[in-house]
Design goal:
Blueprint lengths: L4 H12 L11 E5 L4 H10 L6 E6 L7 H5 L5 H17 L8 E6 L8 H14 L4 E4 L7 H19 L7 E5 L2 E3 L4 E3 L10 E4 L2 H13 L4 H4 L6 E6 L27 H11 L4
Parallel strand pairs: 1-2, 1-4, 2-3, 4-5
Antiparallel strand pairs: 5-9, 6-7, 8-9
Helix pairs in contact: 2-7, 4-7, 5-6
Bound molecules: zinc ion (ZN).
Length: 277
């Protein structure tokens, strides 16, 4: 983590007060685990940016075929293609062209097993895109791919600094989901970071976001759990990823590729491979 708190806070202020008039001032890259996370977290803000880039770390298609079959697909590859096409259409509603949408293509539920590789790739792409601001997931034990993405963005920033390249000036977070006392909490952060800026969406913006959600037809049931009325952002805290998040781990209730007890070892191994210890 290399961002200076004072400087990064000014980027957060800028990002949360976007209008079409100042949208081209900084280069913004959204780094999301799965196709749909970017719209959940920042869909309406994305419409206000001149040329944002969106980078997905996974293809959104678990190899166990459960989701693929549910979506009527005969193979994981077919389901991945379907999700990619949904992403391109949803992002076109933000004015984002296909050449600004990238995927590293790791299978869904396997990002935590590939954090060293993904961190290096994210670093290369952030450098190529000359990203001033990165917006990504919080570390909150919601989905292991989300936590892995939070790790990879912070690791990539450190790799860039170590290489003498320019790291992003600010790492911001959008909301995703985490465990609640009963079920799931969406649209809010765990209280494990700094000040949260919440943008209230107008009725017109809510309609737009609803339309974006509708483009992700395969995710209809999941997306019904997310609010349309606000988007919230904050600076990424300097996490100790070897420690569990400050909440029950939501994904321990599911077979999503790793168990919570696997996480610290995977972080240690990625940190060792990246020589970031
Ligand atoms: Zn996700």
């Amino acid at each position: 983590m290399v961002q200076s708190a004072e400087c990064a806070a000014s980027y957060l202020d800028w990002f949360c007060s976007l209008t079409s008039k100042n949208s081209a001032r900084f280069s913004v890259t959204v780094v999301a685990a799965h196709p749909d996370d970017e719209i959940i977290g920042a869909g309406v803000q994305l419409t206000k940016l001149a040329r944002p880039a969106v980078l997905f770390l996974t293809d959104g298609s678990p190899r166990n075929m459960h989701d693929a079959r549910f979506a009527g697909c005969g193979s994981a590859a077919e389901y991945a293609k379907k999700r990619w096409c949904e992403a391109l259409v949803a992002l076109s509603m933000c004015g984002i062209r296909q050449d600004r949408v990238l995927s590293l293509g790791v299978p869904d539920q396997e990002a935590a097993h590939n954090m060293a590789f993904l961190s290096r790739e994210v670093a290369l792409l952030l450098d190529l895109l000359a990203s001033d601001i990165v917006v990504t997931h919080p570390y909150e034990g919601g989905h292991p791919d989300h936590d892995a993405t939070a790790f990879c963005v912070q690791a990539a920033s450190s790799l860039l600094e170590r290489a003498g390249r320019r790291p992003p000036a600010a790492l911001l977070e959008f909301t995703s989901y985490h465990a609640a006392s009963i079920g799931i909490e969406t649209g809010r952060f765990l209280p494990n970071g700094g000040a949260v800026k919440t943008i209230k969406l107008s009725l017109q913006e809510q309609d737009l976001k609803r339309e974006m959600f509708a483009r992700y037809a395969t995710q209809r049931q999941v997306l019904a759990q997310f609010p349309l009325s606000t988007e919230s952002f904050r600076l990424a805290p300097a996490y100790d990823f070897t420690k569990p998040p400050d909440a029950p781990v939501y994904y321990e209730r599911f077979d999503w590729g790793i168990r919570p007890s696997d996480w610290p070892g995977l972080v240690s191994e990625a940190t060792r491979q990246l020589n970031l210890g």
